[in-house]
Amino acid sequence: MTIRHRITLLVILMFVALSAIGGYAVYQTRHSAAEVKQVTEGVVPSALASADLVSQVKDVQLAIMTLVYAPDGNVVAQAQDELKARKAAVQQALALQARDAASHAQKGLVAQAADSLANYFSAIDDTAGMKAAGKNELAQAYLFANVAQYRDELEGIVETLRIEKNREKDEAITTLNGTLATTTTAIAIVTGIAIILLTSIGSLLYRQITRPLTRMQAMMSEIAASQDFTRRVPVGRMDEIGHSIVAFNGMIEKIQESSLQLKQKTADIQAMLQNMQQGILTVVEGALVHSEYSAYLEAIFETNDIAGRRLMDLVFADTELGADVLSQVDAASYACLGEDAINFAFNEHLLVTEISKRMPDGRVKILDLNWSAITDDGDTIVRLMLCVRDVTELRKLAAEAGEQKRRLEMIGEILAVSEEKFHHFIESSAGFINENERIIRQHSQADREAISELFRNMHTIKGNARTYNLQHLTNIVHETEQRYHELRHAEADEPWDQDSLMQELARVRAAVESYATINEVSLGRKGASRRESAERYLMVDIAHIQESLRLIDAARSDDLHALQSMRDDVRRTLRVLGTETLGEALSGVLESLPSLAVELGKAAPVVRIDERGYRLRREAGSALKNVFMHLLRNSVDHGLETAEVRHAQGKAAAGVIDIDVSVAAGALQIALGDDGRGLALKRIRDMAIEKGWIEANQHLDDEAIAELIFRPGFSTVDKVTEVSGRGVGMDAVRDFLKREHGSIALRFTDDHRGADFRQFQTIVSLPERLAVDTAGMPVRDNANERPLDTLAD
């Protein structure tokens, strides 16, 4: 081989080598450009999409917050539409991530994100359902409990995916850098080998390829390291490298926009949480308040020393709760944290839901507490969430509304009673209260007779209050009566607390005075108008007065018979001054019987009054009201049967009560009887034996057995009710009548001696001076049979 050939061969080999090296360099250049394109158009956009996915999850959170705190239906509908759009966007983004997943880890994260997204939107749908049902507070609590849990889970998965994508991006950039470095080395070797022949070509390659690639590599590394997305790589020309740089700059711009949007949305969510008009905190291990809480909590507790404090110190200090309740709340909070969720269900009843907290300046706030448990994936309680609302003004308004309602109800009750009856009730109640005050002050220790007297007086006030349906007073009097009832059955060494008894009596007096004040001040019904009129004026039919005037005018002074007739007529007219019929005196009691019958499940009885021409002086009215309040109620309660029982016995459904007025043996006598089953003599005897009043083998006739019902504390009922069963009644009646110089007795009206039940009449006797005989005067017929609902004042 000649030199020329060798040279030629060398030249050929050199050109072959140069061609091979040049081809390799071109290959490396194209391979590097392909990798740059793959990174800038594949890996980097995928990483960017993962970052955008985080922003889209934040968008979902913002939409659900808008939904929960939406002020009206339009905003709710807009938020729901926004949620649907955000859900579709997140699902689409996850689909893109699944398509671009480069590893099993990324595919697993995408699958977990899809499952978590389904759970997240399921919880969101539950919250939206609560909002649609008007359960705002429950929706808010559910938002910060379950929805927040799934949100945190989804954000955690998406953030992990983003980190994984960034790691892939960083590895791709590192690999690209390595490839670029290899390419640079190859070009340097080619340049060194062909330094003489290819100096200009090498210089051109360096300017056109190596330097731009090196600059782009350096700036990409700096941007990646500094996370300064405001910087851009300059573009020299629009070739493959220029297009790659443009793509890289576009990626950086999108990352910057996404970062700004993410910061703004995070700030919006934080602002919303901080401006909610509700205090929200979470309790972590050690029963300590977590550092993140709503700003409004500081306004509620009037302090900014909240984070890290003990729950019991922050919330329950300076409250009305006792030591036992506080210890239960403290123990319950410790028992829930770190335990299974079922512990919260077991201990939730121990967590107080309302407290009265005293502020440093002495004001008292009423706080509503709503507890929720926040659990992890293992259903373990990691936090307790407490929502606090200041309901002081709400409770104040509710109390004022309740007081106003009570006052209106009392006005309605008063207006349902005539002025005269109401004033008589107030005066009689005041008299009984004064009598009880005198008894309490006179006794320094318990006295059975004094207690029985206290009880009878209070029972009478309650009976009269029930007669006129004064419900608020009835309830208060009932409590005091119950106290006396307990004293009657207490042990002999029971302490006699005068101060406590006087305080209870003062409550009754205040209630009576409250009714009297409303009647006088609010209704303007001052003074016992009808009663005063009866004492000052002649309350008779004007026809009688006109007739008397006619007789006076017609009488001749020389006609003795005419003068006597005129005198008799005028005398009869004047005698009715200050009198009333028995029906008028008992009208209040009679009008209360229908409601009593309904309460006892019986038909309203028919009352027949035969006054036989007698009227009663008004001073007898007070005693008769108290007496017949007991007698008539006993008749309806104990005497008359239910409609079913009466039908079975062939009787009418409504029972009949007969009241007859007469004057005999120098006394006014009022007999009361009914068509019920009669006096339960056997039951009375059995009760007397049970109480030890008589021996089991002791013989008593029917009259002696009947007399037992007048013993204090006697009652035949098995169950104490509002109507009967407290062992007061006939003894009180006898006591009232004794005060009026009267008496009471039972008179059998059948011949069934020794029977279990016997028909009888109750005979009430009063001094004859209380009766006025109006025989010869035209009077209203009171002997007709009338159902109670037809009786008038």
Which structural class do you get from the secondary structure elements? alpha+beta
The helix content is: 55-70%
Domains (count): 4
Radius of gyration: 50 Å
Report on the biggest sheet: 6 strands, mixed
| Structural shape | rod-shaped
Ends apart, CA distance between termini:
154 Å
Task: Kindly report the average pLDDT value.
Answer: 79
**Which parts are unreliable, with pLDDT below 50 for 5 consecutive residues or more?**
1-7, 528-539, 776-793
* Contiguous helical run count: 25
Number of strands: 16
**Largest sheet, order of strands side by side?**
12-14-10-9-7-16
What would you note in describing this structure?
This protein folds into 4 domains: 3-272; 276-390, Beta-Lactamase (2-Layer Sandwich); 401-536, HPT domain (Four Helix Bundle (Hemerythrin (Met), subunit A)); 581-790, Heat Shock Protein 90 (2-Layer Sandwich), CATH 3.30.565. A 6-stranded mixed beta sheet has the order 12-14-10-9-7-16. It contains 25 helices and 16 strands. Strand 4 (364-375) and strand 5 (381-390) form a beta hairpin. Helix 1 (3-68) runs antiparallel to helix 2 (73-99) and helix 20 runs parallel beside helix 21. With 793 residues, the protein is α+β, with helices and mostly antiparallel strands.
